Amino acid sequence: MSSPISEIMYEAFLRCIYPVTRLMPRELESGEKRKRLLNIAGSFFVLPILLYYLIVDIRFHEQSDVFIDGGLSLMLVGGIFVLSRVKNGVWVYRAEIMGFTILCCFNAFITPIGESSLLWTLLYPPIVFFILGIPEGLFWFAGMFTFDFIVINFSNIPALQIYSPDMRLKFFIVLSVIAFFSFAYEMLRWHFYKQLKRRSDELASALENVRTLSGLIPICSICKRIRDDKGYWNQLEDYLIKHTDAVMSHGVCDSCMEKHYPEVYQHRRNAEKVNV
Questions:
Q1: Which pTM was predicted?
Q2: Which residues span the domain enclosing 157?
Q3: Based on the domain organization, do 79 and 182 belong to the same domain?
Q4: On the chain, which terminus has fewer CB atoms closer than 10 Å, C or N?
Q5: Quick one: 25 and 158 in the same domain?
Q6: Taking a C-beta distance cutoff of 8 angstroms, is the pair 192, 199 a contact?
Q7: Which residues fall within 8 angstroms of residue 52, CB to CB, at 6 or more apart?
Q8: 102 and 132 assigned to the same domain
Q9: Residue-level pLDDT at 210
């Protein structure tokens, strides 16, 4: 049971991302809609940060950093533009993940300013799993993890001397923990989504098989026959069998039994009195 605070926060979050939903095409599949919301909202959040670093790099004449930050900013803006017009944005997601991969490697291996340069890579697991899903996200993360492990521990790049052995060990431990929880969360989300979709399909199938009678049904006040759309009078049970999924089981009510079978009726009444 969700708490009132969680509901209030959720409503506030929906209001914040409402402008983002207006940039998406209509009739998106729920999984694609989730990815689209996360991608576009994340782009709006990351763009000011990239622009800040771009201004700083321009001020200090860091040409390589200007190229990376400017290129990623243009990629995010272009991704928002494309995602607002297409229904399948998988190639946009892959391009953005590739750009983020280049940024992580550039900060960690080319121009590290300290041990904190590795921290950007810690964002890699949740981003690739939440946006690309389990199979492809696992592929991207495994490639990134293997590449980082080999370069940091077995390469002779002078810039990597800034990372102490203790920092390297802690980095890969924390990266593995974040990757595990990101993978587990996405796996559970996928599992419950499949269960919900299966229940929804079963309910839709059941509703399709439900047949009901509605509207004005003309019925004879004497013989209780029903007139169909073609003007023919049908027995009540025939009409119900034809227009519903009901199965008729015939019997004789007490009034009709007393009228048409008085001996059987009197015998049943006497038997009931004896049993009482």
A1: 0.69
A2: 4-208
A3: yes
A4: N
A5: yes
A6: no
A7: none
A8: yes
A9: 60
Taking every pair of Cα atoms in the chain, the longest distance, rounded to a whole number of angstroms, is 112
Domain match, 120 and 204 both: yes
- Nearest CA to 54 out of 83, 27, 37, 77 is that of 77
Residue 219, domain member (yes or no): no
Q: Does 175 lie in the same domain as 82?
A: yes
- Residues lower than pLDDT 70 in the chain: 1-2, 208-215, 274-276
133-151 pLDDT tens trace? 899 999 999 999 999 999 9
Residue located via tokens 């980095």: 171
Residue with token string 């929804």: 200
Residue 8 lies in a domain: yes
- The pLDDT tens digits of the residues spanning 40-92 come to 888 888 899 989 988 988 888 778 778 888 888 898 899 889 988 888 889 99
